[in-house]
Amino acid sequence: MEKIRVMTVFGTRPEGIKMAPIVKAMEDVEEIENIVCVTAQHREMLDQVLDIFKIKPDYDLDIFKPGQSLTEITTKGLEGLEEIIIKTKPDLLLVQGDTTTVFAGALAAFYQKVKVGHVEAGLRSGNIYSPYPEEANRKLTGIVTNYHFAPTNESRENLLKEGYPEEKIFITGNTVIDALFHVVKENYVFKDELLNNIDFENKRVILLTSHRRENIGSPMENIFNAVDEITKKYDDVEVVFPVHLNPKVRNIANKVFDGNNNVHLIEPLDYEPFTNLMAKAHIVVTDSGGLQEEAPSLGKPVLVVRKETERPEGISAGTARLVGTIKENIFNELDLLLSSENEYNNMANAVNPYGDGKASQRIVQIILEQFK
Ligand code: UD1
Ligand code: UDP
Fold it and tell me: pTM above 0.90?
């Protein structure tokens, strides 16, 4: 029997987390030959994910270089992938999400006339510069995609509006929920001493993350200043911020939070402690895409510190609020959640607009049906 040769391509932390359940699901399927290729657009942050999910890539382009430009990531990814695609001749190349690796992967496949499956297809903010360059990456990838795996009905609708054929769009849920279900545990004990020493019973912990390119500069300073000021108003509030490895983010964080003992700046956490920290946190403040999906599932109010979001489902469900990047607005929204039990409880609903934890199984089934 000829196997279906499926090559997964990913390069950053969130793509790894969301692609891992699909790679794992395909490992158990006899009809599929699993070829894993990482660009390693991220290095340490990707390796953390590969370790946790025990994935050993067949190919590692190792393109990471600190501070490299979008052009460098794209061209190195394209060149490296061309060679591997010609050598391995996959029937299908899977990419996930909206990073530059996704765009390069989809384009490299298209150039070799290899079919493309896009996981997490159809998310749209409507503004090509926000998130930047992700909104464009996702749209550009869509153009060369043969199978659109849309996580929600809204994302399917976006694709239909852009004229993509109905029979090539599949609602699957988001694989981030599949991954999350594997790692969040009751009574989780951290290995990290700082986290273990936090009194989650008596302190209200804000989990903060921020890394978006369009926020770097004064928007990010505003976000951090708002959080800094809120810790000065409330004695029982502590902040944990696993800081992205981007030095531009680190510089702003170090500057704004300097001397504030209630804000813990820590290294990026492995996925398991990170999600368990979110499960114990009181509020999430973030510009991350993935966190907007995970927080509703864990019933955590999430303040999205961005001007636009391509993930409106959490907002409709009431768990997420788009609060922009103006300091006073972020401070006021935090203040409201910390001072009004009613406001807090209205947002702290465990809802799952992004999936039921079976997205990866669905995607594998669709692949089997389409290639039989
Ligand atoms: C990338 C994605 C973004 C995604 C994010 C997830 C693009 C354009 N952006 O943004 O969509 O939300 O990943 O985190 O694809 N760095 C390290 N080690 C690492 C990773 C990053 O040192 O393991 C530092 C480097 O200095 C690097 C910088 O972070 O230059 C930025 O990395 P890059 O991949 O260019 O963009 P991200 O902001 O991480
Ligand atoms: N995450 C992690 N450790 C951290 C911060 C985030 O494992 O210290 C996980 C998080 O649970 C989510 C993903 O990384 O699944 C989000 O990545 P990021 O915010 O970097 O990218 P985005 O989702 O915005 O593309």
Answer: yes
